[in-house]
Amino acid sequence: METKKTHSGQAKRMALKTRLSKREITVAPGIFDMISARMADSMGFDCLYMTGFGTVASYLGLPDAGLATYTDMVNRVAAFCGGTNTPIICDADTGYGGLLNVAHTLRGYEAAGAAGIQLEDQEFPKKCGHTPGRHVIPLEDMVSKIKVAVESREDTNFQIVARTDARTSLGIDDALRRGEAYAKAGADVLFIESPESVEELERIGQSFDIPLLVNVVDGGRTPQLSPVDLQKLGFSLAIYPISGLLAVAKSLKDTYSEIRSLRGTQSVESAMYPFSEMCALMGFPEVWAFDHAHAD
């Protein structure tokens, strides 16, 4: 049986870097398991985003609160990147420790096939973005982490996304100051987490000359703008980390409620993905072809 053929990690990294250099808005859906990864991969996106919130929730059934380890997450990176053709930026939290851990994490993510890595400046244990209780490490410590990440990568096309969570606890001015320092340290993409107004988004877009990422969280702190409007403000990449996860959770609740109430699934069947298409998405035609070729 043939396995799913994927482009090499190097090719994916080159494709992502080239795409971001155009400064046209790129939209990246959040993937959190192999079904979401394969679905998004089949739809022609230029980039996918491995969400920490969704991956920890689906893989461990835990909140994204610093509980997942490097081993947990690099396992998911390898699975997602090995089973898809689209470049993926993968959440790596704080790098899972000090400078040596950051170097180890970056090399592991790169070897696992990621096109980019996201590192943030939160204190450990970190918290999910757009939630309360997030505190940041000293600016100088994060600058050192970024420099180590730059030194540790083998492929210069591997994108290092530097995220600051300073806006929520210290204000927008401090967040912009950190962004400037992180860019000077060698970050390829800047991610100012959870700005709280269009005016703040505009300030971010006007402050930097490298690709900027905006985190579009349904129900989060940041205003919901269209990708076209985000591009006008200066952003190159808009991630939608939990949109798919929330949609799946709502569909599961609706379907399971019908089953639990003894009504069956007839009333929700029209909202379901067709069984035949799910079989195709997961590769069953190749299994059937193999069986046919080797039948007695």
Automatic annotation (TrEMBL):
Arranged from A to Z, the UniProt key words for this protein are:
Lyase
* Domain of life from the UniProt record: Bacteria
Does the keyword Lyase belong to this entry? Answer: yes
User: Which CDD domains does this UniProt record tie to the protein?
Assistant: ICL_PEPM
Among Gene3D superfamilies, the record links this protein to: Phosphoenolpyruvate-binding domains (3.20.20.60)
The molecule here is called Isocitrate lyase/PEP mutase family protein
List the source organism.
Paraburkholderia polaris
Query: Single GO molecular-function term?
Result: oxo-acid-lyase activity
**InterPro entries hit by this protein:** ICL/PEPM, Pyrv/PenolPyrv_kinase-like_dom, Pyrv_kinase-like_dom_sf
Specify the signal sequence span.
none
